[in-house]
Design a protein that fits this description.
It is a single chain. The protein has 2 domains: 2-97, no CATH class; 121-320, Beta Barrel (Porin), CATH 2.40.160.20. It is 22% helix and 39% strand. The protein has helices spanning 2-27, 51-75, 79-85, 95-100, 168-177, and strands spanning 121-130, 136-137, 140-148, 153-162, 165-166, 183-205, 209-229, 242-256, 261-277, 300-320. It has an 8-stranded antiparallel β-barrel. It has a two-stranded antiparallel sheet with strand order 2-5. Strand 6 and strand 7 form a beta hairpin.
Length: 330
């Protein structure tokens, strides 16, 4: 069985060899008008000596013409194709000079910024929530306004109003065991801010829709109205709101839906000195015969606490004017 297979392969190879030799012999035909290498065949223009020579001479002339046309097209680098498209330009174009001529095209490798901040106002209503106080939450609503001097720098004002919610656990523990964590509540906050925009980009979402975004940093100084919450001795103690100087620093992300509307996500740390409730009750009697527990001078701790009120803020940014214009053309 193996010998039969080997025999079939040898027969197939022998059949292919003569076929493969046919194009080789055709390529060996001389060009029209040239004398063949062997010297036996006449040239295309001479009278053939035999009947077979006539056919061979004609074939040689045809091959020479075809080869010559192909060589001309290759040497001109596509000039034949140009002649077919525009015959009037066929004899007037020097491809080498045309390829060497200087080019000065005006090309933009990147798209221009979709959002321009320069000389625009931003209005940002937002909601906020304290992140780092487990005994009392400080939800708030606020509004910030900014004017951008350049695309990367702006100044603004911000303020919010607080809604305080003390923890029931801390209150009940302090009532039962006279042990509680001193906590405070806030009434309002107002700041003057400096804003910087260090980064800008875009991403695709919801199919082919392109969202543009930027990162911003914000810092400033202002005031916060704060007071201690009476936890240790709420029967006798009550406190009034007092403004405290406040520094803030943070940053966020804006995701733009169009040229004038964006979703704003922000983390801001408001740093302020606070007075805390005195964890001890003074049971002594004063010179007036009254218990010192009712004296406001004994309600506040002698130590001042530096508080970091870290807030998460989410809101919408509206830009005015809503349209933008470029000084340079696209």
């Amino acid at each position: 069985m193996n010998q039969v297979r080997v025999g079939l392969l040898i027969a197939a190879a022998l059949a292919v060899i003569p076929l493969s030799a046919i194009p080789l012999s055709a390529m060996a035909q001389p060009a029209g008008g040239d004398k063949p290498a062997g010297g036996d065949q006449p040239t295309g223009g001479d009278k053939p000596t035999g009947g077979d020579g006539t056919g061979d001479g004609t074939g040689g002339t045809g091959d020479g013409t075809g080869d010559g046309t192909g060589d001309t097209g290759d040497s001109d680098g596509g000039l034949a194709d140009i002649c077919k498209i525009d015959p009037k330009q066929c004899g007037t174009i020097d491809l080498k000079k045309a390829a060497a001529r200087p080019l000065n095209p005006e090309m933009y490798a990147m798209q221009q910024r979709y959002i321009l901040h320069q000389r625009r106002f931003e209005l940002n209503p937002y909601a906020a929530l304290t992140l780092n106080d487990q005994f009392v939450s400080h939800p708030a609503i606020g509004l910030s306004a900014a004017f951008y001097i350049t695309n990367w720098m702006g100044v603004g004002l911000s303020g919010h109003y607080y809604f305080n919610s003390p923890s029931d656990f801390n209150f009940q523990t302090s009532r039962a065991a006279r042990v509680g964590e001193p906590i405070t509540e806030y009434q309002w906050n107002a700041n003057a801010n400096f804003i910087g925009v260090p980064a800008y980009g875009k991403f695709a979402g919801f199919g082919d829709f392109i969202f543009h975004y930027d990162f911003f940093l914000q810092g400033g100084v202002g005031a916060t109205a704060t007071r201690p919450i009476a936890v240790v001795d709420p029967d006798n103690r009550s406190f009034d709101f007092t403004p405290r100087i406040t520094f803030n620093i943070g940053g966020g992300l804006r995701i733009f839906f169009n040229r004038w509307l964006a979703l704003t996500l922000q983390i801001q740390d408001y740093i302020l000195p606070e007075e805390l409730e005195n964890p001890k009750i003074d049971d002594t009697v004063g010179t007036d015969g009254k218990s010192r527990a009712t004296d406001p001078a004994t309600w506040v701790s002698d130590e001042t606490s530096i508080t970091n009120n870290v807030q998460a803020q989410i809101g919408l940014s509206f830009y005015l004017p809503p349209t933008v214009s470029y000084k340079k053309p696209k």
